Structure formats: C-alpha cells, structure tokens
Amino acid sequence: MYLEHLSLTDFRSYAQVDLKLGPGVTVLVGSNGIGKTNLMEAIGYLANLSSHRVSSDGPLLRFGTERAMIRAKLVRGEQSTIIELEINANRANRGRINRGNPVRARDIVGICHTVLFAPEDLALVKGDPSNRRRFLDELLVSLIPRHAATRSDYDRVLKQRNALLKSARSGKFTAAHEATLEVWDQHMAKAGAELLHARLELVERLRPHLNSAYAQLTDGSREADAQYRSTIQGVLDDDGGLPDPAAGSAVAADTVPAAATAGTTEALRSLSVEELSDRYIQAFAASRRKELERGISLVGPHRDELELMLGEAPAKGYASHGETWSMCLALRLASYYIMLDDAITGGSAPILILDDVFAELDVQRRRKLAAIVAGAEQVLVTAAVDADIPEELAGRRVRVVPGGIDGEG
C-alpha cells in the first residue's frame, strides 16, 4: 500500500495543502516548526484516529475554525481508495469512503495502515504505563479494526463504573448502589475480558519480532522482550485461580515482581474470553472494599502494564539513552513486521513514517534503521536538513515552506 495524494483543509497550520506522493522513499525537508510533522500527523490520524502528539482533537483544527478535513488517495495493487475524514469541534467526527455516504469515523479504520516513528516514542520506554497500553491498542486496532469498538465499549463502561464508585464513596453505600455496581461489573468484565484476551495474543506475536528488531539495531549482545502484566495477576493464586474474595484485595500490577508474573501470564493466555470474564467478576469482588474507599476501578485493562525487558532488567530505569532509543525503534519495527505478516495473508503492508527521527540518533543507529526500512513499499521521512538523512534513504525530496509545499528539491 502507498499514499498517492494527501489534501488537508484547516488542519493544524494549513488552511489548504496538497501533497503528491508515490511508492519508495520521499523525504520532506524544511526548517523546524514549518509544518512537516503536521503532514505526517494527518496520515497517522487517518490510520488510527489518534495523534502521536496530543490526546484530544482540538489542537488539530486550525485556530479559529470548527472543522478540519483530511483527504487521501491510497493505492493497493490495482485498486485505489479515496478516504475523507472530517474532524469536528462540536460534534462527532465523520468519514467517507470513495465519496459514498458519510459513515462513523471508526468505520474507516483499517483502510490506511501506518507505522510512525517519532521523538515522542521515547515515552514508550521512559513514560508511564498508559503510553505502552496505547501502543498495544493502536496496533491491535490496526490489525483487527473491530477492536476499535472493543476499546470504545470498555472505556464507556469504565467511565460509568467509576462514576458509580465515586458516588458511593461520597455517601452511604446502599443496597441500590450494590445492585447497580454488580450490573456494571458484568458489563466491564465482558468488555475487559475481550480487550485483555486480544492484548495477550498480540504480545505473543510481538515478542519474537521485538527481539529480532532490537538485534538488528544493536550488536545483539542483549535480548529484548516484553511481558504483559495484568491486574488480575495480583489476585491469582498459584493454581491460576483466584482466592476467596474475603481473603484479600487486588494488588496493582506494578507491585508484582516480573519474575512472579510469567507463570500467571501463561495461565491467563490459556483462558477463553468467557473464562477471563469470570476471573474479572471474582477480582472485582476481591477488590470491592478498596475500590469503594478510593472511588475508582482498580482492576482491569486500564491499569495493566507492558513491561519491556533488556536481558534480565527492565528497560525503564536501567537502559542507557542509546538502548532506550533502540528499544523504541524496535517496538515500531516489530509492529511493522507483524503488519507484513498480515500482508502475506491478505492484509496491506503499512506506510512507514519517520518523523524527525534521524536527528535524534547517532550515525550508527541512523544507518542501521535506514537500511532496514529502505525496502518498504512507501517510506515518508521528515528532516530539518538534508544532512540528517542517511545515504541509504536516497529518494525524492520535497521542500516544505510556510503554509505549503514548494515542490521537489
């Protein structure tokens, strides 16, 4: 798959811009702050309905406007697809496929596949667990678009359940509260089990690619790995079941030693969605007292962790700056390799986007990363100066100027 044309209206700094692209390598060169990243952000948003820079849609709209438009023409083999996405300030976003009738924005997910490398990726290792959960969920939705609904359903139920717990905390916990909470427990257990089951399967696919990619980027002296740590593990007993709810309460995943989680992770991975749902119901009961005291949900995928390992040590806190960068790049490359696996069985190879990454890397990592990605069907690179681009990524140059595109360099 490759992007043939991108058009933006009132997106970020652009009132209107049109960018023609093609397969192979395209490098967008321009001064910092000129708008190169805005173009890459729009492509990434088209794929995931989220930005790698901000958590809400408001900043994506050009100041003073109520709507932004992203239009793209994608080519896959002999087939082309036109996607339009309308981002609105005061109503739900809408999409359109091949100029058909408007659809929900999430209905366009899965058409455009991207893997985006950016300086913000350092948060995947150095940041809090929410960054790593987001990484997993965005990859999951790219591979299996129906999980956009799974994630949305879980977020909706979590919000309702937290509101009830907060209400119960501020007043007397009545029988009516208990009955309502049990209903939300059932909804959250079902939605949480589906999300957990999907994440566990994805992590197993990710792990060998992560180690392989890390070895490609380094001297291969240390192995890279990832372990999924679920909050259910805090209340699992040695047999993979749950203790009597009266015997204790849930333990946050970040308090469980990594070595102690491996067996329970294997136990979780062997369970069906229905069995995981049952485990959640028991875990909610076991953690009820603490949840009521704190007024929040303490057990569920929203509090899980993807722990990244280098050798025997966690990458966070132990990896050097160079190792941290290599781990971040390896995570993105692992995503790319998984998507390539899917492309063999009928999916689409992703568009690779490297947004101002080479300026952050030493010469050795620049060359290794460039050599790995150069053969992708489409690679889009941004840089402030030509000197930042390794020779391995020789390709078309596009000059970005204030408010638009100046053409090929």
Averaged pLDDT:
90
Could you say which structural class the secondary elements and strand pairing correspond to? alpha/beta
Strand line-up of the largest beta sheet: 2-1-4-5-6-7
According to CATH, the homologous superfamily of the largest domain is: P-loop containing nucleotide triphosphate hydrolases
What is the end-to-end distance? 25 Å
Low-confidence stretches: 238-261
Number of strands: 15
Could you walk me through the main structural features you see in this protein, from its secondary elements to its overall organization?
It is built from 10 helices and 15 strands. By secondary structure, the chain is of the alpha/beta class. It folds into 2 domains: 173 residues, 3-Layer(aba) Sandwich (Rossmann fold), CATH 3.40.50.300; 170 residues, RecF/RecN/SMC, N-terminal domain (Glutathione S-transferase Yfyf (Class Pi), Chain A, domain 2), CATH 1.20.1050. It has a 6-stranded antiparallel β-sheet with strand order 2-1-4-5-6-7, with helices on one face. Strands 8-12-13-3-14-15 form a 6-stranded mixed β-sheet, with helices on both faces. Helix 4 packs across helix 5 and helix 4 packs across helix 8. The longest helix has 43 residues. The radius of gyration is 23 Å and the shape is globular. The two termini are 25 Å apart. About 6% of the residues have low confidence.
How is this structure best summarized?
The chain is an alpha/beta fold and 409 residues long. It has helices spanning 36-48, 123-126, 129-143, 147-170, 175-217, 258-269, 273-286, 288-294, 321-344, 363-373; strands at 2-11, 14-20, 24-29, 67-76, 79-88, 94-97, 103-104, 114-117, 224-229, 305-310, 313-314, 351-355, 378-383, 396-401, 404-408. The protein is 41% helix and 22% strand.
